[in-house]
Design brief:
Largest sheet: 7 strands, antiparallel
CATH architecture of the largest domain: 2-Layer Sandwich
CATH class of the largest domain: Alpha Beta
CATH topology of the largest domain: Uridine Diphospho-n-acetylenolpyruvylglucosamine Reductase, domain 3
Number of helices: 15
Structural class: alpha+beta
Bound molecules: flavin-adenine dinucleotide, D-malate, zinc ion
Number of domains: 4
Radius of gyration: 22 Å
Strand order of the largest sheet: 13-10-12-11-15-16-14
Distance between the termini: 17 Å
Strand content: 15-25%
């Protein structure tokens, strides 16, 4: 049920739990919780509740369950698939105030943090102990650890440490009826039944509200070398990516920007790429280690002599950042140009080049006025296909369906790292069988029988 007109008795109960300042009903204030980062997904709500901790979250869910009010859990609201905003009038449960970082467990190399801690704050907290978080992404200043687990976020270091699910060694969550489940000991070996952390990772707020997360941490790798490599063709870039993965043990990130996207981001930055202005594909490769990895990266790049058009290598933080800018600013450059449809897909390595070279025609066949922009995490086979319509408007909806069908026909995944949200609900069947979808629905019924948690997300 949507939040609708809030019963004053419900508002009073919520106020009793979280305080007057954290029950928001003024439409001017709730508006910012109702539109997503891309501006593509916008709804309305009459109720935003901002608990401070697990106990308050549990009590709030008790009230919501009794009043049968559906909720959209929200962290940093940087999600890109329309899963973090109230599109059907749901209440918003903002977890941002759960922002406590507990002391780092130096012996275990683990830390427990509140769901509302931003990635940047978690990174700074554990850096003081010489450790790092295994997942990094450009939205680090706003994206929260709870939201990152809920989406099983990927980012730029998956080829080294895995995605967010692989970082979770303990979880605390509130179920739809207000029950708290907590398993935060962080034991590396713990075969005592179902792994709720794994289940909640990628559940997109549909099974439980994550309130605390225990993260596996990794040693900091302060020595870095970064290379921007230009290629004439996708085939060459894909072959180079495979070679770098095989030959550079300290490889930490392997990102790609393709032709039209490089032109757009260069224009946005006001500077051309330092190499390969005539290229069609660029790889950004970063090596990281405790001791200087530049020789290892240079040896890896030398092996690419027959493939590469040009290479720019940087060792100092400022110079490395200038190379990273051509990748990290892509999302903002596209957003400045309009409201894209964001299709985030993975291809098997053997079909990657075929997809990258073929998808533009697939897009144009569905919408001749559309503008496809390709980039991504090539080391993981993850391509971001962003599509703008004419003058920055959205492209035709048929584009999504055709591109995702193309992905499925090549054996790929229609969501690599952003999730299904509301954006890809209609296409989930391309990757998941009826039997799998029935199992998903059974899990949802078991944990959220009244359909209160993000009822319009993930499950068709
Ligand atoms: P939100 O957007 O608030 O929510 C996302 C989903 O999680 C929603 O379904 C919501 O209901 C649910 N949710 C949020 N918090 C909780 C909670 N505590 N408990 C239960 N459910 C919850 N993503 C990547 O994977 N890789 C990238 O490289 C990447 N780069 C990005 C770069 C930019 C510039 C931007 C804007 C986004 C990027 N993203 C990327 C997408 C986004 O940052 C991630 O999906 C991130 O994990 C979302 O975190 P959030 O806190 O903003 O969650
Ligand atoms: C990225 O890799 O930059 C992100 O996933 C964001 C996006 O797809 O725009
Ligand atoms: Zn990404």
């Amino acid at each position: 049920m949507s939040a609708g007109t809030i019963d004053p008795a419900v508002a009073d109960e919520l106020t009793e739990i979280v305080g007057r300042a954290h029950v928001l009903c003024d439409p001017e204030i709730t508006a910012s919780y109702s539109i997503d980062w891309t501006r593509r997904f916008a709804g309305t709500t009459t109720l935003v509740v901002r608990p401070a901790d697990t106990a308050e979250t549990a009590a709030v869910m008790g009230v919501m369950a009794a009043a049968r009010i559906a909720v959209v859990p929200q962290g940093g609201n940087t999600g890109l698939v329309g899963g973090s905003v109230p599109l059907a009038g749901e209440a918003v449960l903002s977890l941002r105030r759960l922002d406590t970082c507990e002391p780092v467990d130096q012996l275990a190399s683990q830390v427990t943090v509140g769901a509302g801690v931003t990635l940047a704050d978690a990174q700074a907290h554990v850096a003081a102990a010489g450790l790092s978080v295994g997942v990094d992404l450009a939205a680090r200043d706003s994206a929260t650890i709870g939201g990152m687990v809920a989406t099983n976020a990927g980012g730029i270091n998956v080829l080294r440490y895995g995605a967010m699910r692989a970082q979770v060694v303990g979880i605390e969550a509130v179920l739809s009826d207000g029950t708290v489940v907590s398993h935060l000991a962080g034991l590396e070996k713990d075969n005592t039944g179902y792994d709720l952390g794994s289940l909640l990772a990628g559940s997109e707020g549909t099974l439980g509200i994550i309130t605390r997360v225990r993260l596996r941490l990794h040693p900091q790798l302060p020595e870095r070398a970064t290379a921007l490599l230009a290629f004439a063709s996708t085939d060459d870039a894909v072959a180079a990516a495979a070679s770098l993965r095989r030959n550079v043990q300290s490889l930490h990130a392997l990102e790609a920007v393709f032709g039209a996207t490089m032109s757009l981001v260069s224009e946005h930055l006001g500077t051309p790429p330092p190499v390969g202005t005539e290229g069609n594909a660029w790889l950004l490769a970063e090596a990281a280690a405790r001791t200087d990895p530049s020789e290892e990266l240079a040896a890896g790049v030398e092996k690419l002599a027959d493939l590469v058009l040009g290479a720019a290598v940087a060792l100092e933080p400022g110079a490395r950042q200038r190379l990273w800018a051509f990748r990290e600013n892509v999302t903002e450059a596209i957003s400045a140009a309009g409201i894209p449809h964001k299709l985030d897909v993975t291809l098997p390595a053997a079909r990657l080049a075929e997809f990258v070279d073929g998808v533009t025609n697939v897009v144009l066949a569905a919408d001749p006025d559309a503008r496809p922009l390709l980039f991504g995490h090539l080391g993981d086979g993850n391509v971001h296909v962003n599509v703008l319509g004419p003058d920055g408007a959205e492209p035709r909806d048929e584009v999504d369906d055709e591109v995702l069908r193309f992905v499925a026909s090549l054996g790929g995944s229609i969501s690599a790292e952003h999730g299904i949200g509301t954006a890809k609900l209609a296409q989930l069947h391309l990757n998941r069988s009826e039997a799998e979808l029935a199992a998903f629905a059974a899990i949802k019924r078991a944990l959220d029988p009244a359909q209160l948690l993000n009822p319009n997300v993930l499950l068709p």
